[in-house]
Design goal:
heterodimer; A: about 160 residues; mainly alpha; 7 helices; B: about 190 residues; globular
């Protein structure tokens, strides 16, 4: 229910605020879209690379050697902290095989939406200021992801 | 890192396919380019549209207003951070992340790290402030996961936005548990 009103709610708040502040909302919109297009062009090669790798891995049938109810979600969970595009590629495989409205599809969506590329972000942020000793940062970051994924299982079950 | 992952995924997949006599593997490689094309076409327009909307929020000063609102909370969460500039960039990073504005969030976040390193006593070693900030960042709340919504729509979901509230709940669990563990580690280190 609430989910359905969030997007229009955000859009109207942003538009009204911009309009009241007398900024040219249309020009800002267009400018932002151009930025968005640039981002899109930049991520196209990365998406292609990850779709190739993840599809070859998953569709080789390698997951069949393990048993278990949620085995299809495993590649996503492992790839999620490293590469957002890779876990997105794994998610499309789940959608294709089970549909976005299946339990697995719903669960995968929540995991992708609720967690971040922790390892990648730590490497980028610490690397930018040449931090060599990251102490407990990775441990806490991955613990948070783990709790988020656990919560996703429960929440998806409850909402589904 | 990404080199190894990429290499392993592809080579394990191909080798496994050879041994399990999976004849399809050639087609899978070819098809993946079409899959990527479909993925980009299905998520692209919404990413562009949302960047447009969010740029209005950024240009009108609404984002700054939100960052100012969360700054007192951040001060409580990051007691060791003294630099006002760092706090300012951290808050814009968190707000931009919440709204799914990666292109705004990352530059702000990197600037915040620079200010944190300036006041860092042990150069080259992560400070408490940095770690808490990154826990907030990586476990952070994305209010609208637009990419996932676009993808769900493309694959024929009846209600693509139904995942918003569950995602927010899961991400809040992740943030709170990360911050709690971080808090206890910091307290233990003081003793």
């Amino acid at each position: 229910m609430l989910s359905n009103y969030l997007i229009p709610g955000i859009v109207i708040v942003i538009l009204v605020y911009g309009f009241v502040k007398r900024v040219s909302i249309y020009d800002y919109f267009i400018e932002g879209c151009i930025d968005g297009l640039k981002i899109l062009i930049e991520i196209v090669p990365a998406i292609l690379a990850m779709i190739l790798a993840v599809n070859v891995f998953i569709q080789s049938g390698i997951l069949d050697i393990i048993n278990g109810k949620f085995k299809e979600i495993i590649p996503m969970v492992i790839l999620r902290p490293i590469s957002g595009n890779a876990s997105l590629a794994a998610l499309t495989n789940i959608y294709r095989n089970f549909g976005p409205d299946s339990y697995l599809g719903f669960l995968g969506s929540v995991i992708q939406g609720a967690t971040d590329t922790t390892i990648y972000v730590l490497a980028l942020y610490f690397g930018s200021i040449h931090i060599k000793k990251t102490r407990y940062a990775l441990g806490v970051g991955l613990f948070a992801d783990f709790c988020g994924i656990l919560a996703a299982f429960i929440v998806a079950y409850y909402f589904f | 890192m990404i080199n190894i992952i990429w290499f392993l995924l592809i080579s394990i997949g191909i080798v496994f396919a050879f041994f399990s006599n999976n004849q399809e593997i050639g087609n899978i490689i070819i098809d993946s380019s079409f899959n990527a094309y479909e993925l980009i076409l299905s998520i692209g327009p919404l990413i562009v549209l949302w960047s447009g909307i969010m740029n209005i929020a950024s240009g009108s000063g609404l984002l700054r207003k939100f960052s100012n609102l969360i700054r007192p909370i951040l001060k409580k969460l990051l007691p060791s951070v003294k630099s006002e500039k760092a706090l300012e960039y951290i808050s814009s990073n968190i707000v931009a992340n919440m709204l799914g504005l990666g292109s705004v969030a990352t530059p702000a976040g990197l600037k915040a790290m620079k200010y944190l390193e300036n006041e860092n006593k042990h150069k080259g070693v992560a400070s408490e402030g940095m770690i808490t900030f990154l826990v907030l960042n990586t476990s952070g709340v994305t209010i609208i996961p637009m990419t996932v919504i676009a993808l769900r729509k493309a694959y024929g979901s009846i209600n693509p936005t139904s995942i918003i509230i569950p995602s927010i709940i899961a991400t809040m669990v992740s943030t709170i548990s990360g911050l709690t563990l971080d808090y206890f580690i910091r307290r233990k280190n003081v003793k």
